Amino acid sequence: PTTLPPRLVAVPSPNGDISRSHVRIEVVEGHALVTDLNSTNGVMLLQHYLPPVRLHPAVPTPIDVGTRVDLGDGVLMLLEPET
Questions:
Q1: 59 and 52 Cβ atoms separated by less than 8 Å
Q2: Angle at the Cα of 73 (from 59 to 43), degrees rounded to 5?
Q3: Cross-strand pairs, 76
Q4: 46 vs 30: CA distance, rounded Å
Q5: Which end of the chain is more exposed for a tag (fewer CB within 10 A), N or C?
């Protein structure tokens, strides 16, 4: 399998809710992992039919396709299936 180099993505945060290094999303052995990088305001996972889950800092957490990752300040990321 191909390993892609890390890519930094800047997102707008008008209220300053998103930290400079807020979250890492990576694929390891075919599984998506999300890690809160000790952000100030945290990272929430939003999954269908389940209550929101706040990530524990520095703990890689597996997520499924369809999971939304809420960074705060109205910024959501969605894990979509590979095409």
A1: no
A2: 10
A3: 70
A4: 21
A5: C
17-33 burial code (b ≥16 CB/10 A, e <16): bbbeebbeeeeeeeebe
Tokens of 65: 């396709």
Q: Which of 45, 6, 41, 39 is nearest to 22 (CA)?
A: 39
Distance CA 37, CA 55 (A): 10
Read off the pLDDT of residues 57-79 as tens digits, 9 standing for 90 and up.
999 999 999 999 999 999 999 99
Q: What is the pLDDT of residues 17-53, one digit of tens each?
A: 998 889 999 988 888 999 999 999 999 999 988 999 9
Under DSSP, is residue 65 helix (H, G, I), strand (E, B) or coil? coil
DSSP result, 29-60: TTEEEEEE-S-SS--EEE-TTS--EEPPTT--
